[in-house]
Specification:
Elements: H1 2-7, H2 13-48, H3 53-80, H4 82-171, H5 178-189
Length: 190
């Protein structure tokens, strides 16, 4: 085989067929690497940003169409180069399966997020109702304590203060006569 490669020249059409085949392999490898890079970026974007799911799906569909176009071109090349066709069809099949898995995961993620949002809204409503009910009970309890405990206690305190003043007046010592009081004050002043 090495003697065959050494005997090949640029004038030989088989040499140019081999060059075309090699260039085709290089182009297919570059296309597959580019597709792999795009798929990797798409998967990371789906994991990070839920709000961008719809644009991502459009991009994935566009890449799928590109993959299908590559598959069609691969079939045309496969008519000329049978070995290349088998590898390209296998790669396209794996790519389509990966896209199907990604679409399924995105749909599950979207359903999970939707379900979580509904549950969170229900919990917020429950907490709000509980807070409202607690506030109403606190207000009712405050009104009850005000009317049944504090107001009667104030009235009792006022009655007791009046009663105490009355007792003070009744029990207080007799006032001194006016002239005796002024006499002591005059001695002090003068």
């Amino acid at each position: 085989m090495t003697s065959l490669a050494l005997q090949m020249s640029t004038n030989d059409p088989m040499f140019w067929v081999m060059v075309v085949v090699a260039l085709s392999f290089i182009v297919i490898a570059i296309a597959m690497v580019a597709i792999a890079v795009f798929v990797n970026r798409a998967v990371k974007t789906v994991g990070r940003v839920e709000q961008k799911l719809e644009p991502l799906m459009e991009r994935v569909n566009a890449m799928s169409e590109q993959g299908q176009q590559i598959a069609v071109q691969g079939k045309l090349i496969a008519e000329q180069f049978t070995a290349v066709s088998g590898h390209l069809s296998t790669a396209t099949m794996h790519f389509s399966e990966s896209l199907a898995i990604i679409k399924g995961e995105v749909a599950e993620l979207k359903a999970l997020v939707s379900n979580t949002a509904v549950e969170a809204r229900d919990k917020v409503e429950l907490v709000s109702r509980t807070i409202d009910r607690t506030h109403k009970q606190v207000a009712l309890t405050t009104d009850f304590v005000q009317s049944k405990v504090i107001e009667p206690a104030r009235e009792l305190a006022a009655i007791m203060a009046g009663f105490r003043r009355g007792l003070e007046v009744l029990v207080a010592p007799m006032p001194k006569p006016v002239n005796q009081t002024y006499g002591e004050d005059e001695m002090f002043i003068g």
